[in-house]
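Input record, target 12 of the design panel.
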């Protein structure tokens, strides 16, 4: 008999995983996702990517603002569910729901647990200079990302990877790993592995302070920060008192004794900035306040034409 699954997820990362379940031998009997949100300058009420995908397949969608105490929770508890699968849903699940399905609830987590428990595992993996990350399939527990691990698979982090590109890769890896794991779970042929608590690293959500560039860091560290904030929310510095986002930048093999934050050279296609420990960063794609993203070449042809060697970003 086909197993009945409830899927819980919200962003683009979750969509390939939901799609794989829909296309599998299992039956997705419901999808839980975050409520529609106002998006963009025009404040358009927008459904989550997971809701859009679920509606394409005619699946019932539940969107409680807060799951605990909601009517939607009561509805879920009234369903005959074999398994709950979550992937970046965005809310804690109460114990009563975790224990309701026959085969409990599992999570597709974008890290190699016990490293990077929490809401920003991919961002921290890039910022900390990890050379590998991966996906873990784990049982869900009331404690954050602490459940026993059912399966894991690793991938390399490329020096050009951003959060966006890495999430895309991890989403596909998570889809593959989940479909590989489910038959073993249902046949009870997996031996879950407890996480080593002595090796836990947490990855809390990115704070506003972490978005701002500290030019005293090395060019390599700033490059990682920029990649970890791309495509959201974007690392920024201040130029003449206004936000100036940097979307792409690379360290160069050059040294300088100029004060950090100083533009030590400006060409038609690059702006070179002094960073900590005498290192130098080349800016590639930027976004001045109130403007769209643009290459340095376009910036230098426009408002950036007023900049001169020796100008400085605020430290």
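The sequence produced for target 12 reads:
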């Amino acid at each position: 008999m086909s197993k009945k699954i409830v899927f819980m997820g919200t962003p683009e990362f979750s969509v390939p995983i939901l799609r794989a379940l829909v296309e599998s031998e299992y039956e997705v009997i419901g999808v839980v996702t975050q409520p529609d949100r106002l998006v963009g300058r025009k404040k358009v009420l927008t459904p989550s990517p997971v809701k859009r995908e679920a509606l394409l397949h005619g699946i019932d969608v539940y969107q409680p603002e807060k799951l605990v105490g909601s009517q939607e929770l009561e509805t879920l508890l009234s369903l005959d569910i074999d398994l709950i699968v979550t992937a970046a849903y965005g809310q804690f699940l109460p114990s009563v729901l975790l224990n309701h399905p026959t085969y409990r609830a599992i999570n597709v987590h974008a890290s190699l647990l016990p490293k990077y428990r929490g809401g920003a595992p991919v961002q921290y993996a890039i910022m900390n200079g990890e050379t590998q990350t991966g996906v873990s399939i784990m049982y869900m527990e009331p404690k954050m990302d602490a459940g026993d691990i059912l399966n894991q698979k690793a991938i390399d982090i490329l020096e050009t990877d951003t959060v966006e590109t890495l999430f895309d890769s991890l989403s596909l890896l998570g889809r593959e790993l989940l479909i590989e794991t489910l038959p073993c779970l249902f046949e009870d042929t997996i031996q879950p592995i407890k996480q080593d608590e002595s090796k836990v690293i947490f990855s809390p959500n990115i704070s506003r302070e972490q978005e701002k560039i500290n030019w005293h860091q090395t060019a390599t560290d700033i490059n990682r920060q920029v990649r970890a904030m791309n495509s959201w929310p974007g690392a920024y510095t201040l130029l003449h008192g206004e936000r100036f986002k940097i979307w792409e930048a690379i360290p160069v093999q050059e040294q300088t004794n100029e004060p950090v934050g100083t533009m030590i050279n400006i060409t038609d296609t690059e702006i070179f900035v002094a960073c900590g420990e005498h290192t130098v960063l080349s800016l590639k794609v930027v976004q001045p306040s109130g403007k769209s993203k643009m290459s340095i070449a376009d910036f230098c042809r426009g408002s950036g034409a007023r900049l001169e060697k020796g100008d400085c970003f605020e430290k």
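The two ends are 63 Å apart (CA to CA).
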